[in-house]
Design goal:
single chain, alpha/beta, TIM Barrel, 2 domains, eight-stranded parallel β-barrel, 12 helices, globular, binds phosphoenolpyruvate
Length: 249
C-alpha cells in the first residue's frame, strides 16, 4: 500500500500560495516512485485553481469539508459534487476543529463521508481524543467510538482514509509516543476488520498532529501507519518536502 502524505492548509493561503503547491507538485513523480502519494487540501477558494495548476503532476488535491446534502439552501456550504467538479480527489471530514467549532457530531461526519463517497471522492475521516480524555484513560474508547459513528456502512476497497489526530497534538508541537500511536492505529484497524472483514484492513490510516521533518521518519514507519495528515508543516513546500524526504530515506 502506498504511503499517503496529505497537507491540510486550513484557513491559510491566497493565490500566491499556488507557487508552494507547484514546488510540491514538482516532487510528486519522484515520491510516487518511492510509493508515496502526495496531496494538498487548500481552502475552498483555491481548490479549482490549485487543481488546475498541478494537473498531470501526480499531486492530488482535496477539500477540507463538504455538506452532507447534494445541493440546496445551505448558504456558505459546498457540496461533494462541487469539490469533484473543482478537481478534488479527497475530502477531509470530521476534523477536530470542525467537530469543536461547528459542533459536528459523528453522525454528521458519517453523512458527510457518505456524501463524499457518493460523489466519487475519497473521504479522510478524522478522529482523535482530547488531552483530558487521554489523561482519563479514555483515549481508545473515544477514538473507536468516533470510528464506529463516523465511518459509513459501505465504501469501495481502498476508497476510504481515516486520520488519527489527537486533539492535543494538533498545532502544539506535542506528539504521542510511537508506542501510543502504533497501539491506536492497530486498534482502529482491528475495529474496522471486526466490522467490515478484510475491507477494513484496506482503509489507510494516517497519523496527524505536529508532524514535521524531524519526527516523520519514526512515526511513518510504524506498523498500521499508512501516512500523515499535516497542518502547519504543509504550508510551505520546504516544510512538506522535508517530511517527504524523511520518509523516503
Ligand atoms: C491538522 O490540523 O490536521 C494537523 C495535523 O495540524 P498540525 O500538523 O499543524 O498539528
Amino acid at each position: 500500500m502506498a504511503k499517503l502524505l496529505v497537507g491540510n492548509w486550513k484557513m491559510n493561503g491566497l493565490k500566491a500560495s499556488l507557487a508552494e503547491a507547484s514546488l510540491i507538485a514538482a516532487s510528486a513523480a519522484a515520491a510516487k516512485s518511492h510509493a508515496i502519494q502526495l496531496a494538498i487540501c487548500p481552502p475552498a477558494t483555491l481548490l479549482a485553481s490549485l487543481s488546475e495548476a498541478v494537473s498531470g503532476t501526480g499531486l492530488l488535491t482535496g477539500a477540507q469539508d463538504c455538506h452532507e446534502k447534494v445541493s440546496g439552501a445551505h448558504t456558505g456550504d459546498i457540496s461533494a459534487a462541487m469539490i469533484q467538479d473543482a478537481g478534488g480527489y479527497f475530502v477531509i471530514v470530521g476534523h477536530s476543529e470542525r467537530r469543536a467549532d461547528h459542533h459536528e457530531t459523528s453522525a454528521v461526519v458519517r453523512a458527510k463521508a457518505q456524501a463524499g463517497l457518493d460523489a466519487g471522492l475519497v473521504p479522510i475521516i478524522c478522529v482523535g481524543e482530547t488531552r483530558a480524555e487521554r489523561e482519563a484513560g479514555q483515549a481508545e474508547a473515544i477514538v473507536l467510538g468516533q470510528v464506529d459513528g463516523s465511518v459509513p456502512d459501505t465504501f469501495p476497497a481502498e476508497g476510504l482514509v481515516i486520520a488519527y489526530e489527537p486533539v492535543w497534538a494538533i498545532g502544539t508541537g506535542l506528539v504521542p509516543s510511537a508506542v501510543d500511536v502504533a497501539a491506536m492505529h492497530r486498534a482502529i484497524h482491528q475495529r474496522l476488520v471486526d466490522r467490515f472483514g478484510s475491507a477494513g484492513a484496506s482503509v489507510r490510516l494516517l497519523y496527524g498532529g505536529s508532524v514535521n521533518g524531524g519526527n516523520a521518519g519514526e512515526l511513518l514507519h510504524l506498523d498500521h501507519v499508512d501516512g500523515a495528515l499535516v497542518g502547519g508543516a504543509s504550508l510551505t513546500a520546504d516544510g512538506f518536502l522535508k517530511i517527504l524526504h524523511a520518509i523516503q530515506e
